[in-house]
Design a protein that fits this description.
The chain has 253 residues and is an alpha/beta fold. It folds into 2 domains: 2-120, 3-Layer(aba) Sandwich (Rossmann fold), CATH 3.40.50; 126-220, Arc Repressor Mutant, subunit A (Orthogonal Bundle), CATH 1.10.10. Helices cover 42% and strands 18% of the residues. The strands form 3 sheets. It has a 5-stranded parallel beta sheet, with helices on both faces. A 4-stranded antiparallel beta sheet has the order 6-7-8-9, with helices on one face. Strands 10-11 form a two-stranded antiparallel sheet. Helix 2 (33-42) packs parallel to helix 3 and helix 6 packs across helix 8 (188-204). The longest helix has 17 residues, at 188-204. One of its GO terms (cellular component) is cytosol. It holds the Pfam family Trans_reg_C. Residues 2-116 form the Response regulatory domain. Residues 124-222 form the OmpR/PhoB-type domain.
């Protein structure tokens, strides 16, 4: 998952960034509320971790302007403000969770995962697509209850596809998710990762999960589409052929 951390306490932010990256999160950090709003407009994040006490504008204003701009990315407040009024105001403006400093790192990671899951429509940490199961907490993947061993990049790609099942993801989205704008390789590396991931999935018994949408990117299909992958591959500008009428005699049905 990709996190936007908004906090002007550099020491605290550096420690938190290191901890989140150790927990396999991609983290972008800014000390500015104005810059945070701009980043939310241009990049796709799974969760925002926001301090209310910023130097340029209050965290409350970040929440208000983000929601006014129809940005629905979940926002978790991580602040030293303890008074109940601060929490009430944050929630009323559109925050999704509130954690006070000092905090337990394990609790923060659990809340990040839970908020991101709920935002994407999942209530459990174990996500199932057909015979594939992915555990967001342990980062384990299994097919037909047998473990599937993936590299870190392969797992990150599969996790993103599963969490955003049914949505077409561009190669830029994958690059941002994997590298966060730091030392990004050429875009064709995504094709290489997808190819290797497909081979592992198919060898383990998960067929046709990842579909190429030509000129746009890749999408993970649901259970019906893995059985009938051609349904999603019909270009939008071509009319679909009406279904053939059954020739079976009604008496035989």
């Amino acid at each position: 998952m990709r996190i936007l951390l908004v906090d002007n306490d550099l020491q605290s932010s550096n420690n938190l960034t290191l901890m989140l990256r150790t927990a396999s999160f991609m983290v972008d950090h800014t000390t500015s509320g104005e810059e945070a709003i701009d980043m939310l407009r241009h990049y796709d994040y799974d969760v925002v971790v926001l301090e209310l006490l910023l130097e340029d504008i209050e965290g409350y204003e970040v929440i208000r302007r983000a929601r006014a701009a129809k940005i629905t990315t979940p926002i978790i407040i991580l602040s030293g403000l303890l008074r109940p009024q601060a929490k009430i105001k944050a929630f009323s403006l559109g925050a999704d969770d509130y954690l006070t400093k000092p905090y337990d790192t394990g609790e923060l990671v659990a809340r990040l995962q839970a908020v991101a899951r709920r935002f994407r429509g999942f209530s459990e940490p174990r996500l199932t697509i057909g015979n594939l199961e992915l555990d967001l907490n342990s980062k384990n993947v299994s097919i037909n209850s047998q473990p599937l061993y993936l590299t870190g990049k392969e797992y990150a790609i599969l996790e993103l596809l599963v969490i955003r099942k049914g949505s077409v993801l561009t190669k830029d989205a994958f690059l941002n998710h994997l590298y966060g704008g730091i030392d990004e390789p050429e875009m064709k590396i995504i094709d290489v990762f997808i190819c290797k991931l497909r081979r592992k999935l198919q060898k383990a018994g998960a067929q046709n999960l990842i579909t190429t949408v030509w000129g746009r990117g890749y999408v993970l299909q649901n259970e019906l589409s893995t059985t009938l992958p051609h349904i999603k591959k019909i270009p939008n500008h071509f009319p679909q052929t009406p279904p053939l009428q059954s020739t079976t005699s009604p008496a035989l049905i």
